[in-house]
Amino acid sequence: MTERLPIFPLNGVLYPGLVLPLHVFEERYCRLVADLLAGPEDQPRRFGVLAIKDGRDVAPVTESDKPAGPLSGLGTESGDPLEALHHIGCVADVASVTPQADGQYELLVTGTTRFRLRAVDTGGPYLVGQCELIEEQLGTGAGAMASGVERAFRAYQKRLAGARQATLTGEQELPDDPQVLSYLVAAASVLEVPVKQRLLACPDTATRLSTELELLRRESALLTWLPSVPAVELTRQAFSPN
After folding, report:
1. DSSP letter string, 12-38
2. Euclidean distance between CA atoms 44 and 91, whole angstroms
3. Is the dihedral of CA 52, 58, 64, 69 positive or negative?
4. How many CB atoms sit inside 10 A of residue 18's CB?
5. Could you tell me the pLDDT band of residue 82, with boundaries at 50, 70 and 90?
6. In a 3-state reduction of DSSP, which class is residue 118?
7. Phi, psi (deg, nearest 5) at residue 235
8. Cα radius of gyration (the chain)
9. What are phi and psi of 29, to 5 degrees?
10. Residues 6+ apart with CB under 8 A from 141
């Protein structure tokens, strides 16, 4: 099953079930939001979020007064967006839109379904992708593996709080559903974008949980051995103004 979706490139990863706030200020993405709002009321307002492999999500400043094109900021020599973007992304459903007086927008979106980018149209003000929706697979042993990931994640949170010289305010309740847990852990762990992308692209929940268990144990061990590091990189959160 494929679907044409507007594409919103980000220097970050959106996961199914997770909420993402976006401040949309670039003209091309304001146009994207305006086009969504102009559609029928009963039509879903959604677009595809893809992590950037090569480039950035904000167009570089130029002397030209022309608006940024759909490929501006994507830094491939060939200009091929299929080389600049990761091919596994997540559909974002628009939960709320707050228009600003200057024409910008504040969005709140929720990740819903993963997709694979098959082709991309660069003829408009923003990218539009031909997206193949991905059916979620549980995989073998996901249920049993979830408990181990939960324990490892709690240990990781404590180590991370220590590195940040912060205090946990109580044990958070984690979801029982292995798939939901796998995406929550992926989103909440402080990992580089390529690693987060690898978790998004896992073929099934069991593989994602297995990968997370290995990552959490590695990160917890690193935090144990380096308790005095200021952990600037660990506490830096990715943020996109778009």
Report:
1. S---TT-EEEEEE-SHHHHHHHHHHHH
2. 11
3. positive
4. 19
5. confident
6. strand
7. -95, -5
8. 19
9. -85, -25
10. 206
* Residue 209 token pair: 């949980």
Question: Which residue, 96, 103, 118, is CA-closest to 50?
Answer: 118
Residues 6+ apart with CB under 8 A from 22: 8, 105, 106, 107, 108, 109, 240, 242
Q: Which two tokens stand for residue 112?
A: 């819903």
- Over residues 151-185, the pLDDT tens digits come to 999 999 988 877 555 555 556 788 999 999 999 99
pLDDT reading at 125 higher than 80: yes
d(CA 79, CA 73): 10
Query: pTM for this structure?
Result: 0.86
Q: What is the 3-state secondary structure (H, E, C) of 165-233?
A: CCCCCCCCCCCCCHHHHHHHHHHHCCCCHHHHHHHHCCCCHHHHHHHHHHHHHHHHHHHHHCCCCCCHH
Closest CA to 32 of 129, 104, 131, 126: 126
Residue 43: C-alpha distances to residues 35, 38, 48, 94, 154 (Å): 12, 10, 15, 11, 40
Q: Which amino acid, one-letter code, is at 137?
A: Q
